[in-house]
Write a structure and sequence with these properties.
Length: 236
């Protein structure tokens, strides 16, 4: 059998007799490595299962004793910006509700599930937009969990605050591209079309640029103003 394998390696793979013997001696070592990796993976899974069973046992014991779990006993679990407190309704009854447009990154942290980082992202996105005009825009905030958004309205009232608008007929490419809904490439096209055809009088004129879709134009329209170019010349 040994000689047959060596002969097969020589005729089909071009191995020398020495190379064939070396390869055959290597095969058991490779098989042992594969088997060892499988054993290690099985051992890790068993350990993980045991830790999880202990975790469930601790949770059950705490709940039976009348405690409510707010921090996991597992060291790998981090509940920052995700915890929902059961007493949130009582807290909301003790505070004065404010318009959401007046909330800063400090006040937003009273909402369960919103920490300092998430609150900062909410305020930054609001400033970059020029103001929120609908609740759905909060889904665009990175790190803000969808289930946390309804909790905000226990503490704040959503209001249609005055929007900071971009003057489309005077804004530079960089100024337009600073808005979250307008990319640099889109801003370049808007300005190039303006230079070629004159100022825009209404949002629907953006649809003359065939690459722009109507839903995108509708999305950015509340953040644009259409003052004529002559206003700048008059002021100069």
């Amino acid at each position: 059998m040994w000689q047959q394998l060596i002969f097969w390696f020589k005729t089909h793979l071009g191995f020398s007799a020495k190379e064939s013997r070396g390869f055959l001696l290597l095969i058991p070592f490779l098989l042992a490595l594969v088997a060892a990796s499988q054993v290690l993976a099985w051992a890790k899974n068993q350990r993980a299962s045991e830790i999880y069973r202990q975790y469930l046992h601790e949770v059950d014991s705490l709940e039976q004793a009348g405690f409510q779990l707010s921090v996991s006993p597992l060291p790998t679990f981090n509940n920052q910006d995700t915890i929902t407190r059961s007493h949130s309704t009582k807290v909301s009854e003790r505070i004065q509700r404010l318009p959401f447009s007046e909330a800063d990154s400090v006040l937003l942290q009273i909402v369960p599930g919103i920490g300092a980082l998430t609150a900062g992202r909410i305020i930054k996105h609001r400033e970059n937009l020029g103001g929120f005009i609908q609740i759905a825009q909060l889904n665009e905030v990175y790190g803000l969990k969808p289930e946390v958004i309804p909790l905000i309205w226990e503490y704040f009232d959503f209001d249609a605050a005055p929007i900071r608008k971009l003057p489309i007929n005077r804004a530079t490419v960089e100024e337009l591209a600073s808005h979250p809904y307008i990319s640099y490439q889109e801003a370049k096209v808007i300005v190039a079309y303006r230079l070629q055809h004159g100022g825009y009088e209404a949002a629907n004129e953006l649809l003359e640029i065939k690459i722009f879709k109507s839903d995108w134009v509708e999305k950015i329209t509340p953040y644009l103003s259409f003052e004529p170019l002559e206003e700048k010349a008059g002021k100069d």
